[in-house]
Amino acid sequence: MVTDGLDPRNETFVGWLREHGMRRLAAVTATADTAQVTRLTEEGVEVRIVPPIGIGGALAELPVAGVVHLAQPAPLRALAEFDPAEAAADLDRYRIAAELDAATRGTSTPMFVVTGSAAAHFGAVGAAGRAAAEGALLALAAARRAAGTPAQLLRWMPRADTGDLSVRDAAGMAVSGVTPPTPPTCTRRSACCCGPGWRTWTGR
Known about the structure:
The chain has 204 residues and is α/β, with parallel strands linked by helices.
């Protein structure tokens, strides 16, 4: 089960899952990209659309080998310009993760991966609006680990191709010797962190 599994920004990672044996995808999304569904179906993947409300019921009906929460965070912008509706939508990332957590506690699901924003963690310009959801996701992952339940939390630096990377943050990354990750780089590093033993990892 992959949240935002049909979002074009997650296409590379979903493709990696397919290349490594995924034959059934439960995509948590409010709107289905018909072209994406058609392409995956032609590649031998059975796609099921799961609405972002009532996820637990869908999980109870499916044999789930893993959960990857790839919901996109709120946009980067100054806190004074941050729309309360965007903050509410960002907190919805946590609500979905909490539903996935509740539905998989006590089950044999071996993989539970949640992605977050390193920008919010390090205090990048414009990331203050993401702080509440990021803190909640960190607490959720920590609670799962404390209970002996699989959980990995991946926090990503802004990618170069999404429009989130400001000139100031790009300059700060350059001074620190950090380069914005590309989609293939994100995929490779996600793959490394989807195995057992990882807890929290910051994608650089």
